[in-house]
Amino acid sequence: MGGRKRSRESSYDEVMKKIRKLEKKVKKKARLPSTSSSTDDDTPQNQMEPSEILGRPLKKTQGTLRATLRPTQRYLRDLLGGDPTPEKIFDENVHKDIAKIWSHILLNGLAKDVRMDLLKRYLPPENCTSMRAPKLNLEIKAALTEINSKKDAYSQSKQNQLGSCLAALGKALNIALASDTSQDLIKLLSDAGRLLCDYHHKESQSRRYAIINTLNQQTKDTIKNTKIDEFLFGTDLAEHIKSSKAITKSGMELRPPPPPPPPPTVGNRQRPKQNVISQPPAVRRGTLNARGAGRAAAAEPRANPAPRRPPTSATTRDQQQQHSSRTATRYQSNRRY
User: Fold this and answer.
1) Is 207 within 8 Å of 155 (Cβ atoms)?
2) 83: DSSP letter
3) What is the pLDDT of residues 225-260, one digit of tens each?
4) Of 40, 222, 247, 326, whose CB has the highest number of CB atoms within 10 Å?
5) Element at 266 (helix H, strand E)
6) pLDDT of residue 53
7) pLDDT tens digit string along 55-85?
8) pTM
9) What is the percent of the chain where pLDDT is above 70?
């Protein structure tokens, strides 16, 4: 790089020296009187052309000078860096009346009656029905909440207003193409229309993303790749959902059964299962208000019962009755305490 720079500077210095010599000789020749006997229209014979002095045409010398300067200027610009001036963010002014009206609408909006009148005046053309906002599929609308449904309806109304803008712009383009209008005007109208069409498409994408985030994962995977047409998720959305459900069902049938759960463990050892036989609870006898422990369940009848005692005499019977009465009296006294 250093040798190339020195060669450019040396060639530039040589050319400048030749130009200075040429200027000096031209000035000297202009000062000397003309000694020729020719007429005033004839040029002096001893006057030399600049091309003869340099040995080549002057135009080529100037072209060589420009060709020498341009690479040097580019090289210096690369060394200094790019232009730090910020990019231009505003363009030439519009008409003052247009600026006044549009500024008011941008800050305050249109009146409702004026907006409705403009929407009725500029309807989408018959051969470009995509200017209308795509409708929301009934299958998706049934799955949305009331708030999300109202949000989508508002976005749909904005898209319809954008379609009216495109319709008005299309009429202006028809007039420009039918008449002898400048190509610059046609290009400006066409650029404005393309930008509005792209914004219309972005609004449809925004509506789709807002709705998809409210659905379950299976439905998301089904509808995220659908195409926009008259409806937001395509006219064949019902078929996509049916086929997705059928595929999911077939996949569940083809899967192997899950393995059985492992047996419960106690510490590091597995505890074997034991067959536990459920037994009915013991029947508690006696009154609920009785004190003390409940009575035990009745014993099962013996297989070989003991023989009955022989009948006792009257004296023995009286003694037994007295003993039982004393026992009952003692039991009642204990209950009092």
Assistant:
1) yes
2) -
3) 889 999 999 998 888 888 878 887 777 778 888 888
4) 222
5) strand 265-266
6) 44
7) 444 444 445 545 544 556 666 666 667 666 7
8) 0.52
9) 61
The per-residue pLDDT for 126 is 93
CA 259 to chain centre: 41
User: What does pLDDT average to over the chain?
Assistant: 76
- Cβ contacts of residue 94 below 8 Å, gap of 6+? 102
**137 versus 312: which is more confidently predicted?**
137
Burial track 10-44 (b if 16+ CB lie within 10 A, e otherwise): eeeeebeebeeebeeeeeeeeeeeeeeeeeeeeee
Q: CA-to-CA distance for 174 and 151, rounded, in angstroms?
A: 35
Q: Is 163 exposed, middle or buried (0-12, 13-18, 19+ CB in 10 A)?
A: buried
**Tokens encoding 203:** 């609004």
What are the φ and ψ backbone dihedral angles of 266, each rounded to 5 degrees?
A: -115, 105
- For residue 201 the two structure tokens come to 């498409």
Query: What was the pLDDT predicted at 152?
Result: 94
Using alpha carbons only, give the angle 126, 194, 192 rounded to the nearest 5 degrees: 105
Contacts of 145 (CB under 8 A, 6+ apart): 214
In 3D, which of 106, 126, 148 has the Cα closest to residue 232? 148
Q: Average pLDDT in the 303-321 region?
A: 63
CA angle 325, 331, 335 (to 5 degrees): 145
Q: What ranges do the domains of the chain cover?
A: 2-33+45-80, 110-253
Strand partners, 135: 231
Tokens of 2: 């250093």
Which of 65, 79, 52 is CA-nearest to residue 13?
65
- Computed from CA positions of residues 62, 64, 70, 73, in that sequence, does the dihedral angle turn out positive or negative? negative
Q: In this structure, which amino acid lies at residue 318? A: D
DSSP conformation class of 270: E
